[in-house]
User: Fold this.
Amino acid sequence: MRFIGIVAAFAAGLAAVAAMAQTTGSPAVFDMKGTWTGTRDNITDGATPQISASAQGSPAGTYRLTRVNLTYKIEGQDGRRFWGTISSDQGGAPTRVIGSLSVDGKWIYMVGVIGYVDAQVVDGDTIESCYRHTTAQSATVGCDLMKRQK
Assistant:
């Protein structure tokens, strides 16, 4: 009899957990749409899509420490997937960017023309964004805070 009571209590606990899971539903998807701006500090080797070879920078051995002002314009979003453009104050036309949010909504993964952006949601209008790319001719990595413009 005691075994039946333990099993019944366990089953009741499982039912309660299942009921709570159904009522809480899935979390809202983070809204990426809008214009995001920030200033990224990079370490750079060669010319990159957002940083020209003549961009001002401080020497760091054979590399350069550069700073670039960036804008992400996220034009559309469908669930966790989104798309738009990236541009910089270094000139050139905006380039495409596509991305996806992690299931928990805390991480953002994007790809651009030749680079990758991994980002983390800080709050509803701030993301910490880290860009990296490498080719045989160039490489760069840098992180910044991007703020959604209101």
The chain has one helix and nine strands. Confidence is low (pLDDT under 50) at residues 7-24. The beta strands are 34-45, 57-60, 63-78, 81-88, 95-101, 107-111, 116-123, 126-134, 139-148.
